[in-house]
Amino acid sequence: MTEALFGLRGKDFVILAADMQAAHSIIRVKSDTDKIWQVENMLFAASGPNSDTVNFVEFIQKNITLHAMRTGLPMSTKAAANFTRNELAAALRKGPYQADLLIAGMDDDGPSLYFMDYLSAMEKVNKAAQGYGAFFTLGLMDRYYKPDLSLEEAKEIIRKCIKEMETRFIINLGNFKCKVVDANGCREEALF
To answer: H helices within the chain, ranges in order?
Structure first.
């Protein structure tokens, strides 16, 4: 997939960034797609074919909302990530979704970032990239990441990742959308 998702966990937030293009084969269909969904008090970034990502994330969103309505309790980020992983694994044997995800949330024990691929492998991480963006940017994230990142430092790392994609990747991914989740909730954040 000619896509790029980036995620960084800071000291009291998680920041996600995603390109905004929707493509089919060699054709750019849209250049204003939002690939980062707000699910309750969490953010889900998904890359893959648009039909798979939209259907899967909406399915997860509705089930997490249903859980909250039935129990009266919000689902933690860890629980949501494990539920999502279980549903992705179950779909592998029926009708698989080609969706790679980054899941971000803020719980009582601090910020969390989960990396999940379309084969339902999942890991809690401090920094993550999905799509072709991972080939070019994981080294940058390793070099500049530190556990007590401020929001501005995290945004600067994301800007470096986007610049690296513009320099090295043969395809122009266009604009990127950035969202942050922290103790105040989820919000869109300007990168440039």
So the answer is: 50-71, 77-92, 133-144, 151-168
Q: Is 67 exposed, middle or buried (0-12, 13-18, 19+ CB in 10 A)?
A: middle
Beta bridge partners of residue 76, listed in sequence order = none
Mean pLDDT in the chain?
A: 93
- Does this model's pTM top 0.70? My answer is yes
Of 38, 32, 56, nearest to 177 by C-alpha is 32
Torsion sign, CA atoms 189, 66, 47, 150: positive
pLDDT digits (tens, 9 = 90+) for 56-76: 999 999 999 999 999 999 999
Which residues, other chains included, contact 117 with Cβ-Cβ below 8 Å and sequence gap of 6+?
Answer: 100, 101, 130
Q: Which residue has the tokens 């994301």?
A: 158
Edge-first strand listing for the sheet containing 100-107: 36-39, 42-47, 100-107, 110-116, 122-124
Q: Is 117 exposed, middle or buried (0-12, 13-18, 19+ CB in 10 A)?
A: middle
| Measured distance CA(148)–CA(84) in Å, rounded | 28
Instruction: Specify the DSSP element, H or E, that contains 187.
Output: strand 185-188
Asked if 83 contacts 57 with a C-beta cutoff of 8 angstroms, the reply is no
